[in-house]
Design a protein that fits this description.
The complex is a heterodimer of chains A (about 170) and B (about 280).
Chain A lengths: L2 H20 L15 H5 L7 H19 L4 H19 L14 H4 L1 H23 L6 H30 L1
Helix pairs in contact in A: 1-3, 3-4, 4-6, 6-7
Chain B lengths: L1 H9 L1 H21 L12 H15 L3 H29 L7 H4 L2 E11 L5 E6 L12 E3 L4 E8 L4 E8 L4 E5 L5 E5 L7 E5 L12 E4 L11 E9 L8 E6 L8 E7 L2 H15 L1
Antiparallel strand pairs in B: 1-2, 1-12, 2-5, 3-4, 3-12, 4-5, 6-7, 6-9, 7-8, 8-11, 9-10, 10-11
Classes of the chains: A mainly alpha (about 170), B alpha+beta (about 280).
Chain lengths: ~170, ~280
């Protein structure tokens, strides 16, 4: 196992534990959730294999599901993110391509690119998660509010964390 | 045949995606079945021990409230005991002989270790399980009112379906008028719950008490659910739209009691026999 592999192995547990012990209790206005664990999939190195992404997405989602008592729900949303991530990365390749072996972070590609990268995938994840949980579109308005508020909250936390790691590297 | 394999191999990512999604969808549907004994939920040993450690730390911050609640419950129980003692003194227990009726319900106290109020399908995890004789389908109440039903049990823990779960229905009635309806959550505000199927000719008032009806043998009769906060009756609707303010604040749940109904099997079997003859 490479050094990056070992780091990501530990990150898997860090994200899972942070989600179920800390962020699960952090719900603002009863609508805004923070699903930081999605970033585990989004911040894996650029050339990570599609199959591996989906498998890791399934494992992490399943772990989260056990604690949320929502078997299959988070796994489903995260597998979808894992499947589409590489295609999306291909679509929005910056000029000069990606640095090989590095995760697609804010530090390496800039704020604008990072937002274009994360917002659609986070939106997709939240959309699948909340609408499958609501079992259809019967509560469309309230569910959409939940999706948007959670997107805003998660994105804020993600950006704060990204800027923290930016400071450290300089 | 070879071309088929090549085709599958070429689109292996997509097929894996499809397979995983179908598997997840199956899990979601399976998990929605009401009564089930499962391993992969928060009542499994590892998950429950992690959660209860975390809950142990959180509890320090609400000890004052918990103590206050328990003390007031003690006081009210002591008062009830006194009342009952006086009544027994008067009637000398002459009429009441059927022990089965007296011991109809057993109560098992349990601690809440995991709880949520903001999802559409909220579940509560408690720290008693098979070792105390819990089984799926039992009712759970707290000092303030109804909480939910047991969904699945492991050796030492159990997962409850909270009243705040869009799939949960509880048969209930308006205490003042005695009319029956069904209580179900609409998924938005964790302090309000809907009372449905109260027909037009009934006139429920704001402030009326809603209690469980005891019709389905899960909940004992007369367990408090809440108080009517808002009544609406549109022109064409056959039923009132009633919002009930819950008596129990689900955000502050600490201790609950599981109700073991000893006569449940009997009531159910009688009902099944009767309904069978009707056909």
């Amino acid at each position: 196992m490479t050094k990056s592999g070992i780091i990501h192995f530990f990150l898997f547990f860090v994200y899972a534990i942070a989600q179920v012990l800390l962020l699960k209790n952090l719900v603002l206005f009863n609508t805004a959730f923070c699903f930081l664990y999605v970033m585990f999939i989004l911040l894996l190195p650029v050339e990570t294999n599609n199959l591996l992404l989906m498998l890791l997405g399934f494992l992490l989602g399943f772990t989260i599901d056990i604690f949320y008592d929502s078997l299959g729900l988070h796994a489903m949303a995260l597998v979808a993110v894992g499947y589409l991530r590489n295609y999306w990365l291909g679509v929005i390749t910056p000029q000069g391509g990606y640095d090989s072996g590095l995760p697609p972070t804010l530090a390496s590609n800039g704020l604008q690119w990072f937002l274009v990268y994360t917002i659609p995938l986070l939106f997709l994840h939240h959309f699948i998660l909340f609408f499958v949980e609501a079992a259809g579109f019967s509560r469309f308005g309230f569910t959409l509010i939940k999706v948007m508020m959670s997107l805003l909250f998660t994105l804020t936390v993600v950006l704060i964390l990204q800027y923290f790691s930016l400071e450290r590297k300089r | 045949m070879e071309r088929l394999f090549k085709f599958v191999y070429k689109y292996r990512a997509f097929f894996t995606f499809l397979l995983l999604q179908l598997f997840c969808a199956w899990l979601v549907v399976e998990n929605n079945q009401y009564q089930s004994t499962r391993y992969f939920n928060s009542s499994n040993q590892i998950a429950a021990s992690i959660i209860s450690t975390s809950q142990g730390i959180k509890e320090y911050f609400s000890l004052r409230d918990i103590n206050k609640d328990l003390a007031s419950e003690n006081a009210s129980l002591r008062k009830k005991l006194d009342d009952t003692n006086q009544i027994i003194e008067e009637i000398k227990l002459a009429q009441v002989k059927n022990l089965a009726i007296i011991n109809r319900f057993d109560y098992i106290s349990a601690k809440v270790i995991n709880n949520s109020t903001s999802q559409y399908k909220n579940f509560i995890t408690i720290n008693k399980g098979l070792d105390y004789g819990l089984a799926p389908g039992m009712a759970v109440i707290s000092q303030q009112g109804a909480i939910g039903k047991v969904k699945s049990v492991s050796d030492h823990h159990a997962v409850l379906i909270s009243l705040l779960n869009i799939d949960d229905h509880v048969s209930s009635k308006i205490k003042r008028t005695g009319h029956f309806g069904t209580v179900q959550w609409d998924g938005s505000d964790p302090r309000l719950i809907d009372l449905r199927y109260i027909p037009r000719h009934v006139s429920p008032l704001v402030g009326d008490t809603i209690v469980t009806s005891g019709y389905n043998a899960v909940f004992p009769e007369g367990i408090l659910i809440g108080v009517i906060k808002e009544v609406k009756l549109s022109e064409e609707s056959p039923f009132h739209q009633i919002k009930v303010e819950l008596a129990q604040d689900f955000g502050k749940l600490a201790f609950v009691e599981v109700v073991k109904s000893n006569l449940r099997a009997e009531q159910d079997s009688v009902e099944v026999i009767t309904k069978g003859i009707q056909k």
